[in-house]
């Protein structure tokens, strides 16, 4: 059976709480009943001592986990799928995801996903929920993703993501000529008419997207986008709401619009680009072990670079 051996100190904001409440917040990927059982069995210790679930904790006390459990990714089998690894250490794995690569197994994609590839790359990731994946990119969005290799790193990064301390920057090619940058602050939720799509809704979750223009063309714009939140399809829906849909986005943007007087090369290029022109370009975050700021970049993929070159020729 997989094993976890982790140690961390009780944070100030959880001081005075019962230990069963504390571990439920610190390790939300395990059920309360399982965590309570581990406390009762002495697999979770407080300052090296076995305690009852109702014992209250103090800040800076040491919480120790030494547990055995069934793998949390049992339904996902390891597969030998090459990964473009940008960075790796004991706590983190940073990859450059290609297009046409699903992140998690789901209906219609039971295998061949990033999660399958991660479990082959490092079998210890079966001990971490979703093989350490803390955020996702759409199937056809390319670019940087970070993976947590331990439970402590997973909890830390999920918390940093919730506190908006992880900076995610994208590049996109959109249809239309933007006059300048700005901010879209519109809540997102499921489209009531199509559950596979997202939509701007008053009762949706907060979603904030910052954007600025990098280059303008005759009928398109190359933009930089920074997320405050990371809702499903956020950039795609927000750009469509401005009437500058992401190039190639058949779901939210419809068919690519061919500018008047476009050359045959440009028509061919735009017609053949069959995914959303969206790339996770840069990722910045504090390291889970040291809190040191870390930053990585992934260059634009060849297909987006080729589009920009053709657009420049006709700009």
Describe the structure.
The mean pLDDT is 89. The protein contains seven helices and 14 strands. The chain has 315 residues and is an alpha+beta fold. Helix 1 crosses helix 2 (32-40) and helix 6 (264-272) runs antiparallel to helix 7. Strands 4, 5, 6, 7, 8, 11, 12, 13 and 14 form a nine-stranded mixed sheet that branches. Strands 1-3-2 form a three-stranded antiparallel sheet. It is elongated. It has three domains: 3-68, Roll (Structural Genomics Hypothetical 15.5 Kd Protein In mrcA-pckA Intergenic Region, Chain A), CATH 3.10.290; 85-148, no CATH class; 167-313, 2-Layer Sandwich (Pseudouridine synthase).
In short:
With 315 residues, the chain is α+β, with helices and mostly antiparallel strands.
List keywords for this structure.
14 strands; nine-stranded mixed sheet; 315 residues; Structural Genomics Hypothetical 15.5 Kd Protein In mrcA-pckA Intergenic Region, Chain A; alpha+beta; Pseudouridine synthase; 3 domains; 7 helices
| Number of DSSP strand runs | 14
Class by SSE composition: alpha+beta
How would you describe the shape?
A: elongated
Biggest sheet: strands, sense, closure? 9 strands, mixed
CATH topology description of the largest domain? Pseudouridine synthase
Tally of discrete structural domains: 3
Full CATH superfamily name of the largest domain: Pseudouridine synthase
Work out the helicity level.
Answer: 10-25%
CATH level 1 class label of the largest domain: Alpha Beta
Query: Secondary-structure element order, as H and E?
Result: EHHEEEEHEHEEEEEEHHEEH
What is the average of the pLDDT values? Answer: 89
Unreliable stretches covering 5 or more consecutive residues: none
Estimate what percentage of residues fall within beta strands.
25-35%
Indicate the CATH architecture of the largest domain. 2-Layer Sandwich
First-last Cα distance: 60 Å
What Rg is obtained from the alpha carbons, in whole angstroms? Answer: 22 Å
Count of alpha and pi helical runs = 7
